[in-house]
Specification:
Blueprint (H helix, E strand, L loop, with lengths): L1 E5 L5 E6 L5 E8 L13 H8 L9 H10 L3 E6 L4 E8 L3 H14 L4 H19 L2 H13 L13 H5 L3 H11 L5 E7 L3 H12 L20 E5 L5 E9 L7 H12 L5 H9 L6 E7 L4 E9 L4 H18 L2 H18 L3 H15 L5 H9 L3 H11 L6 E6 L10 H4 L1
Parallel strand pairs: 2-6, 7-11
Antiparallel strand pairs: 1-2, 3-5, 3-6, 4-5, 8-10, 8-11, 9-10
Length: 418
């Protein structure tokens, strides 16, 4: 059962009581991410996420870590393109401690100059680690190819140049501008009553000021863009795709089914063709990213440079034929895959907390699992095929690759998709 309270300043508190479990997952979601950053703020949302763990007037960074470790809890956060989330997972008996710690971190973090300088080094190491992970890197390059110069196309981590210029004053100003009451959703799922959550967090967060919602510029999209970043590694890592539907589009459920058919498992078209039939790859999959006003759909493959042309030929042929390759049996199998995956995930209080917050962000309120299952069940063969014709059109696609480009002797196949 879902319950929702809106504080006078606009903070939304949403809970789901699960009396059969012993855990509670509590999350604070701010509707701000890297998309809201100005060019000189690139990476600031992510930097602030780190700084919230570096100490308050009441707790040092070590205190925060020891309090959670002593209780066997999980404490973490993440930054996305359009949201930032801070969350705890604890036993129900430790909820009060987690709630007090969460509100103190978000409302009273110090942003000491020495901590900011130290964290610059930490995040620069994270950035270097990311650069050493070509599969992660190629996804960022792919977004940049789709939306060059737009915040959606930029890495969440930022760049060394922008990170080095961050100061406590600038970070605090960003928090004051974006961490406002109207952008905050507190979501909680587990063995806890709604009134306990409101009583524990309401008084502190009711003092949070309101802010204004800043409109984001819709990115311009064009087909046929490409980028090949040379790296002395063993494989080529390729992302190929196009802009797609926004998260509010009702076709997102047919899109989930289509994504599962194309590259969502070991029976998918990509996996069966590239790996099982031809042995050209170890890893390949499809992916989607849905944002407030636009989305993306694409595929990933990692392969030996000498197979560059063969992989491209398979992919281009596959995408041209996707609508005709889809069968009614595939649609039903993928629907069952999505249903089962969702039901299994609901055994986690973390998943349920995330569903509460995302339901509020995407739909204006949580959607019952039964309603989502019905929406998945309602997807039909015709919807999936029509969406495949729209999305899997090589003439609309762009691509990015990372790997030893000098070992590719064949022409880069841009002309085939431009």
């Amino acid at each position: 059962m879902y319950q929702k309270t809106v504080l006078p300043n606009g903070v939304r508190i949403i809970t789901e009581r699960l009396p059969h479990v012993r855990s509670v997952t509590l999350g604070a979601w701010f509707e701000v991410g890297s998309r809201q950053e100005m060019p000189d703020e690139w990476g600031m949302s992510h930097f602030i996420e780190h700084m919230m763990f570096k100490g308050t007037k009441s707790y040092s960074a070590r205190d925060i870590a020891e309090i959670m470790d002593q209780r066997g809890g999980q404490l973490n956060a993440f930054t996305d393109k359009e949201q930032t989330c801070y969350y705890f997972k604890v036993l129900d008996e430790h909820f009060a401690t987690a709630a007090a710690l969460l509100q103190d971190m978000l409302l009273n973090s110090l942003f000491l100059p020495e901590d900011v300088e130290k964290e610059k080094n930490v995040i620069l190491e994270e950035l270097r680690m990311y650069e050493d992970s070509p599969e992660d890197l190629v996804h960022d390059l792919f977004s940049d190819v789709l939306w060059p110069g737009h915040p959606l196309g930029k890495s969440i981590l930022g760049s060394e140049d922008t990170i080095q210029e961050f100061t406590p004053e600038r970070l605090k100003a960003y928090v004051a501008r974006h961490y406002t009451a109207d952008k905050l959703i507190i979501a909680c799922a587990g063995n806890i009553h709604h009134h306990e959550v409101v009583e524990a967090l309401g008084p502190a967060f009711s003092t949070l000021p309101r802010g204004g919602r800043l409109p984001g510029d819709e990115p311009s999209s064009a087909a046929g863009r490409s980028r090949f970043e040379n790296k002395e590694i063993e494989q080529i890592h390729l992302c190929l795709g196009a802009p797609s539907i926004a998260r509010g589009d009702k076709r997102r459920y047919p899109l989930q089914v289509l994504d599962a058919i194309v590259g969502g498992g070991v029976s998918s078209l990509l996996f069966q063709r590239l790996r099982e039939d031809l042995g050209l790859v170890y890893s390949t999959y499809s992916f989607t990213g849905l944002y407030s006003d636009i989305g993306l759909s694409g595929i990933y493959a990692g392969f030996c440079p000498e197979n560059w042309s063969r992989v491209w030929d398979v992919l281009l042929g596959l995408f041209k034929d996707v609508p005709s390759l889809i069968t009614a049996e595939m649609v039903e199998r993928s629907k069952q895959q999505l249903r089962s995956g969702m039901i299994l995930a609901l055994e986690s209080t973390s998943t349920r907390m995330t569903r509460l917050a995302k339901g509020e962000i995407y739909e204006g309120g949580p959607i019952a699992p039964e309603a989502v299952l019905n929406l998945i069940d309602s997807v039909n063969y015709g919807q999936v095929v029509e969406l495949a014709k729209e999305i899997y059109d090589p003439q609309r696609w762009s691509w990015a690759a990372v790997g030893p480009s000098h070992l590719v002797k064949e022409d880069v196949p841009c002309k085939k998709i431009c």
